[in-house]
């Protein structure tokens, strides 16, 4: 299914910490940190504001992280990925779910209909495609099993069983 339009609405007040974002996107924490510091994919729920603060990534951020990972895995250059991500940032979440990214290994093309995919493949340009709606569902399924937290709550994750000792100490220090 390349194009699908019955994707759910997103809760923009819920975010995911770095390790959770890494797990859902299939990347390392080092990649996540580098991409955040260089502006490729920055956390939109809560950015890092100094030493010790927790970044919170939105569902959309994690979706873009997973798409970036897939493009890297297929050999697309980071420069081309930066251009593609810049373009994706200009689109709304609903639009993101409607597109398929195609690439010939050097350039990334956006297709918003099955006809565009066919035209690109017939032109001999597209080698592989990433249906963003399908990636959306994969990320959604993975995140359903992982802890998240509310953007307005700095210390208490929604899934408290996943809290680590350091988070508990921070909470105790700030509370008393």
From TrEMBL:
This is MerR family transcriptional regulator. Pfam families: MerR_1. The keyword DNA-binding applies. InterPro entries: DNA-bd_dom_put_sf, MerR-type_HTH_dom, MerR_fam. Keywords: DNA-binding. Residues 23-87 form the HTH merR-type domain. The keyword DNA-binding applies. Signal peptide: none annotated. Residues 148-176 are annotated as: Disordered.
């Amino acid at each position: 299914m390349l194009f699908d339009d019955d994707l759910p609405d997103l809760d923009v007040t819920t975010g995911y910490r770095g390790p959770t974002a890494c797990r859902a996107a299939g990347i390392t924490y080092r990649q996540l940190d580098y991409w955040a510091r260089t502006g490729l994919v920055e956390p939109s729920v809560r950015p890092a504001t100094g030493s010790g603060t927790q970044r919170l990534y939105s569902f959309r951020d994690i979706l873009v992280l997973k798409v970036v990972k897939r493009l890297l895995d297929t050999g697309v250059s980071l420069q081309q990925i930066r251009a593609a991500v810049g373009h994706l940032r200009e689109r709304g979440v609903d639009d993101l779910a409607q597109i398929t990214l195609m690439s010939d290994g050097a350039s990334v093309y956006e297709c918003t209909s099955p006809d565009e995919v066919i035209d690109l493949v017939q032109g001999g340009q597209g080698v592989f495609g990433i249906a963003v709606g399908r990636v959306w569902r994969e990320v959604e399924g993975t995140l359903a099993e992982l802890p998240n937290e509310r953007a307005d709550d700095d210390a208490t994750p929604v899934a408290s069983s996943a809290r680590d000792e350091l988070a508990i100490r921070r909470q105790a220090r700030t509370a008393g």
